[in-house]
Amino acid sequence: MCGIVAAAAQRDVAPLLIAGLKALEYRGYDSAGLAVLEGGEVHRVRAKGKVREMESLYLSNPFPGGTGIAHTRWATHGVPNEANAHPHMIGRITLVHNGIIENYAPLRAQLQAKGYHFTSETDTEVMAALIDQNLSGGRGLREAVLATVRDLEGAYAIAVISSEEPGRVVGARRGAPLLVGLGIGENFLGSDAQALVQVTNRIIYLEDDDVVEITREGAQIYTLDGKPAHRGVHESELSADAVERGEYRHYMQKEIFEQPHAVANTLETRISAAGVLPNIFGAGGDELLAKVKGVHIVACGTSYHAGMVAKYWLEDYARLPVNVEVASEYRYRETVVPPGTLFIAISQSGETADTLAAMRESRRRGYLGTLAICNVPESSVTREADLKLMTHAGPEIGVASTKAFTTQLAALALLTLHLAKQQGLDEERYRDLTEQLLRLPRTLEEALKLEPQVIELAERFVHRHHALFLGRGEHYPVALEGSLKLKEISYIHAEAYPAGELKHGPLALVDEDMPVIAVAPNGPLLDKLKSNLQEVRARGGELIVFADTNAHIDGNATRGAVLRIDAGGDFISPVVLTIPLQLLAYHVAVLRGTDVDQPRNLAKSVTVE
Ligand code: AGP
């Protein structure tokens, strides 16, 4: 899950490649590098760390050239350092790679026996050497790449230049994203459309096992057997503004505050006062959903938490049995699939390797059909699903998911309503749920006004090492999401539990140094939750409660704080109560001075296993 950009142009491409890499840093930021081909000579610059480190090296010694490749890395094979940074050069070949080559070890041994000398620990360098070897026998770069990828096992997206073929870049993909950007008199490759938004909106999405050759004049695609292939041109709707940070300090903060608008986009044209509109899941969607007797949801990380909330909703309101599973588990075990089961993949990026593999695996297991809930049109998950419900959240740049989560929940709420109606939910209740959902953008806007109080609260966490999050029912996944946010950007160790589980073990951790954060909606479980909070209080724990305005919680009896928030109703309250937890994680991270948008060791899009 690294990022790739490449260009074949008349103008100097290094500044374009650097701008493209900056848009791709969400995919990894352990090291960056670029190489430019000029008059048969390759100039290369690489640096450990973010793209800006490499950029300042480049600016201290810039070089011209119209053909180039560039890379931002998330380390898999080999530590993040300059030697392991891409592009890798061997013989006539310079190459960047995203993915993992599984059979690299035997290939490396064979190539070493033939005299190739490797200077990095990466699997990528092996690929470069193989292509160089395959250039012999009169093959050009494209034929050599084709011959090489036929021998590879694993996942890759690559961009390659040869010192013997000026003006040409060859790319290939299998299991990792790569697309072509068509400019005027210049053409590009990129891991996504965002990387190319500065130069073009005309995009060709490559398919698995495609090999592509770009020059200034055009782009030609080939299948693995070397035959020319035709793939359609799409107009990307991304604008350069959509990926600007604007007045906000971090992308994460911007994305938190975009949520009312983003959720409104998810709901737009899909629901009215009368309920969910027909045909919102694409052609044949309503007919397929009419046969649903159960649901399996598969996802990773934050998207998995969205799936967990949906389990409560679908079982409560649509009375359908639901299983939710993390994709990396699902794909490697045998599941029981009762007839009429719908498979749902939830993914912000639509490129998460485990989710994609799980969805492909599901084809073999006899589901009724697959539904993708996704934010990126033309992503692999979206393209391969039978039905899709796009979340329309707009680009999410911060590694920590915020608006992706709440828009996934809004999409899952639409699905819940659709299926609940079909399963005969009482009309009055259906109307109530519909009204709550229509009010959601406005309720989120109100919830965001809590920020000043959350900032004050954040001060208490600056020197903490641990935190516990509690919730019950559909607010347990909200607690999980809150703890994930806190740990990933502030590096404070956090765990979440269903509040009723506390006494079965985690209570032993509670003392005056352990802050306990609880989400307290008003509802039938409130009294139960209050008893659980008493257990914390009795052990001297510091309680921070985010409570619905109607929930009777005695703030004075708490060592800690109770913050009030209008949760907007029992249906939408998991979405609304997520907001203060996101704000808390964000402001704690800011106070601790961490890299909020690009926390250590992580990447936005996890396209490796
Ligand atoms: C959470 O903040 C992370 N961004 C991560 O858990 C993420 O949700 C997970 O990697 C799945 O990504 P996806 O939604 O793009 O598939």
Automatic annotation (TrEMBL):
<keyword id="KW-0032">Aminotransferase</keyword>
<dbReference type="Pfam" id="PF13522">
    <property type="entry name" value="GATase_6"/>
</dbReference>
<feature type="domain" description="SIS">
    <location>
        <begin position="457"/>
        <end position="599"/>
    </location>
</feature>
<keyword id="KW-0315">Glutamine amidotransferase</keyword>
<comment type="function">
    <text>Catalyzes the first step in hexosamine metabolism, converting fructose-6P into glucosamine-6P using glutamine as a nitrogen source.</text>
</comment>
<comment type="subunit">
    <text>Homodimer.</text>
</comment>
<feature type="active site" description="For Fru-6P isomerization activity">
    <location>
        <position position="604"/>
    </location>
</feature>
<dbReference type="GO" id="GO:0006047">
    <property type="term" value="P:UDP-N-acetylglucosamine metabolic process"/>
</dbReference>
<dbReference type="GO" id="GO:0046349">
    <property type="term" value="P:amino sugar biosynthetic process"/>
</dbReference>
<dbReference type="InterPro" id="IPR001347">
    <property type="entry name" value="SIS_dom"/>
</dbReference>
<dbReference type="GO" id="GO:0005829">
    <property type="term" value="C:cytosol"/>
</dbReference>
<feature type="active site" description="Nucleophile; for GATase activity">
    <location>
        <position position="2"/>
    </location>
</feature>
<dbReference type="InterPro" id="IPR029055">
    <property type="entry name" value="Ntn_hydrolases_N"/>
</dbReference>
<dbReference type="InterPro" id="IPR046348">
    <property type="entry name" value="SIS_dom_sf"/>
</dbReference>
<dbReference type="GO" id="GO:0097367">
    <property type="term" value="F:carbohydrate derivative binding"/>
</dbReference>
<dbReference type="InterPro" id="IPR005855">
    <property type="entry name" value="GFAT"/>
</dbReference>
<keyword id="KW-0963">Cytoplasm</keyword>
<dbReference type="InterPro" id="IPR047084">
    <property type="entry name" value="GFAT_N"/>
</dbReference>
<dbReference type="GO" id="GO:0004360">
    <property type="term" value="F:glutamine-fructose-6-phosphate transaminase (isomerizing) activity"/>
</dbReference>
<dbReference type="InterPro" id="IPR035490">
    <property type="entry name" value="GlmS/FrlB_SIS"/>
</dbReference>
<dbReference type="Pfam" id="PF01380">
    <property type="entry name" value="SIS"/>
</dbReference>
<feature type="domain" description="SIS">
    <location>
        <begin position="285"/>
        <end position="425"/>
    </location>
</feature>
<dbReference type="GO" id="GO:0006487">
    <property type="term" value="P:protein N-linked glycosylation"/>
</dbReference>
<dbReference type="GO" id="GO:0005975">
    <property type="term" value="P:carbohydrate metabolic process"/>
</dbReference>
<keyword id="KW-0808">Transferase</keyword>
<dbReference type="InterPro" id="IPR035466">
    <property type="entry name" value="GlmS/AgaS_SIS"/>
</dbReference>
<keyword id="KW-0677">Repeat</keyword>
<feature type="domain" description="Glutamine amidotransferase type-2">
    <location>
        <begin position="2"/>
        <end position="217"/>
    </location>
</feature>
<dbReference type="InterPro" id="IPR017932">
    <property type="entry name" value="GATase_2_dom"/>
</dbReference>
<dbReference type="GO" id="GO:0006002">
    <property type="term" value="P:fructose 6-phosphate metabolic process"/>
</dbReference>
<protein>
    <recommendedName>
        <fullName>Glutamine--fructose-6-phosphate aminotransferase [isomerizing]</fullName>
        <ecNumber>2.6.1.16</ecNumber>
    </recommendedName>
</protein>
